[in-house]
Amino acid sequence: MRHHGIHHVTAIAGPARGNLDFYTRVLGLRLVKKTVNFDDPGTYHLYFGDSLGHPGSILTFFPWEHVAPGRNGVGTTQETAFRVPEGSLGFWMHRFIEQGVEHGSVEKRFSQSVLTFKDPHGTSLSLVGIPNAETEEAWNVDGIPAEHAIRGLEGVTLLVENGERTGTILTDVFGFREAAREGSVVRYRTDALMGSTVDIRSVGGFLPGRMGGGSVHHVAFRAKDDADQAGMVKKLAETHGLQTTEQKDRNYFRSVYFREPGGILFEIATDEPGFAADEAQERLGAELKLPAFLESRRGDIEARLPELA
Ligand code: ZN
């Protein structure tokens, strides 16, 4: 089931300008869409991803200019991981030192090398060394040779009281399988190239998380199309007693949302129609894009949004 896996991760950041600079210049991702939060059009919604914005490469942010810091804890996504070529962690360690990025040392998890770091607004991130990832296409930016560039998302680590029911949703509805266990972490995987891994850490008795700057707002899983999504919605209701929202048109995908048993907000997003729906591939991210229902308010919206450069 190659079309399954994570579609995107959405997090909350501080000021938009610093968010854009960090993900495009420091990490070398492509800004694939510049739009607003459809439910709160005074706030940007910035999408970062690979050269074409493939599902599984996308990390998005709602940047809030005056955000209070969030706290990781039970019922939150603890970490979001990117894929890099296995031999590139040394390059990234050096780059983090040079760019003043808060980072840890290289550690082993499930026999993979992992380098943890944080963005300027406290989002917990990591780079995972992946064999042969250097042969995959990369987005080019100054200072990051293609052989070391990030190749999309690897996955997320979810922190929940008891991960069993969350894991069942992954395997029964989203096409994941249990792949390995290490301490209190169970790893679930799909065959997708990107966004293929979810680690569930069960931590009974920890403090609950608090949403704020640096917090992941939700994790979106892939559905091939509307029919695939409808099948998942039906299964969630009939087998798991979980109701989703009605489908919302997000212009670049169509989504439903629900809170999984561990308390984390999940989304199911279609692969269709993708980020080239309203601008050419070579122009992705160049202009502020608004959904049709907000176009008549463009002047007001543009005047209120913060400067990006
Ligand atoms: Zn989303």
Model description:
This protein is of the alpha+beta class and 309 residues long. The chain has a single domain (6-304), classed as 2,3-Dihydroxybiphenyl 1,2-Dioxygenase, domain 1 (Roll), CATH 3.10.180. The chain is built from six helices and 16 strands. It has helices at residues 16-26, 89-99, 164-172, 226-240, 292-295, 298-304, and strands spanning 6-13, 30-37, 40-49, 58-63, 76-85, 103-109, 112-118, 124-130, 153-160, 177-182, 185-189, 197-202, 216-223, 248-249, 254-259, 265-270. Strands 2-3-4-1-13-16-15-14 form an eight-stranded mixed beta sheet. Strand 2 and strand 3 (40-49) form a beta hairpin. The longest helix has 15 residues, at 226-240. It is globular. The mean pLDDT is 96. The structure holds zinc ion (ZN). Zinc ion binds next to strand 1 and strand 13.
